Please model this.
Amino acid sequence: MLKIVVCVSGGGTNLQAIIDAVNSGTITNTEIAGVISNNRNAFALERAKQAGIPAVCVSPKDYINRDLFNEALLKTVNEMKPDLVVLAGFLVTIPVEMIKAYENRIINIHPSLIPSFCGVGYYGLKVHEGALERGVKISGATVHFVDDGTDTGPIILQKAVEVRRDDTPKALQQRIMEEAEWKILPHAIDMIANGKVQVKNGKVVITE
Ligand code: GRF
Model:
């Protein structure tokens, strides 16, 4: 049984997709051990509570410096004893100590086809503003392992979504969430839970 911890910062629609997929059997062999947010007002915390999942807030506002926050975050993750950490709309830079402790055991969902529109400064709506500004005809979402860069770890799954002529950033974000994020993140978790994902020479090898 794969024990996962889901880290969130906002509305938690990706968390909800994971909860629903575990409940429906789309994700097998997996238990959500807990949810951690850096934002005490994140509706994702409410979603966790409604699902009966332990949910805690570790806020940088409660620590006098970033090092103490980083320490508290890692301690909270460790206490839940996860096999896999899932970043689902988590807007916190993962401390290097945590990357080392969970090498190739942290995954992230990014709302573009990496390597486009990713890296420092590309998060939330800014990703879609960049895509529309560039005039791309296809965007999408990527699930990848987290390494010590920003959106640079080995890619696990991607799903393309068409960009429409009248798209606003909000409309594109919503379609990418519905058609891509909420599908490939549960799919990636299920594959990992069933031993189908390995990292070889920095690339993901999937044995479906
Ligand atoms: C989504 O676009 C996600 O890709 C990004 O944050 C947005 C909100 O995610 N990282 P959620 O609704 O909190 O899961």
In short: The beta strands are 2-8, 30-37, 55-57, 84-87, 106-110, 138-145, 155-162, 197-200, 203-206. The domain at 2-206 is CATH 3.40.50.170 (Rossmann fold).
